[in-house]
Amino acid sequence: MSHNNKILILHGWGGSDAPHWQAELAAEIAKNYGTVSFPLLDNCHFPSKNRWVKQVKQILEEFKPDTVVCHSLANTLWFWLCQEEMPQVKRLFMVSPPSITTKEATIKTFFPCEMPEELYAKEIQMIVSDNDPYIGVAEAETMARHYNIPLTIIKNAGHINADSGYGKWDFIEKRVMEQK
């Protein structure tokens, strides 16, 4: 793992408490003397888009990550952040982005969401499951095509979270930590 790679991990609705793969990834990076920021976003069970945007803008300014790893609602948050110009990151991992037309009362301030013109990242990878309750494969494929980015579809992984068995996840650790 290159030690000048600062990694920001952004959780979705409700956080990513251990044993969620994002918590495991944060621990793994730290164990390898990597630089990681895994912030708990404001009021994560009842999130407000404007507050999250403000909070993450500040984190981006202060931490200046090279790599950003988003799960679930964090991808929607990234879309909102990209509605205005911002510094480009080297790598962006988009795991289980929800549909841009998600209808869910608790997180309604985030939707509907437009796909921004630019994702402000040099390299982007999207990873979804073929049975995610929050997004269909067809929409994920449309998103990936729109940005011309590689899409990995995992079989039967639900929302790719602790509930669907994604605690420690080697696939993402290897990619994020650039282990061949």
- The rounded distance between the terminal residues' Cα atoms is 10 Å
How many strand segments? 6
SS field, number of helical segments:
5
What's the story with the biggest beta sheet? 6 strands, parallel
Stretches where pLDDT is under 50 for at least 5 consecutive residues are none
List the topology elements.
Elements (H helix, E strand, L loop, with lengths): L5 E5 L10 H11 L3 E3 L11 H15 L3 E5 L1 H9 L7 E7 L25 E9 L7 H11 L3 E4 L15 H7 L4
Parallel strand pairs: 1-2, 1-3, 3-4, 4-5, 5-6
Helix pairs in contact: 2-3
Structure write-up:
This protein has helices at 21-31, 49-63, 73-81, 137-147, 170-176, and strands at residues 6-10, 35-37, 67-71, 89-95, 121-129, 151-154. The protein is of the alpha/beta class and 180 residues long. Strands 2-1-3-4-5-6 form a six-stranded parallel beta sheet, sandwiched between helices. The chain starts with 5 loop residues before the first strand and ends with a helix.
Protein traits:
180 residues; alpha/beta; six-stranded parallel β-sheet; 6 strands
What is the gist of this entry?
The protein has helices at residues 21-31, 49-63, 73-81, 137-147, 170-176; strands at residues 6-10, 35-37, 67-71, 89-95, 121-129, 151-154. The protein has 180 residues and is α/β, with parallel strands linked by helices.
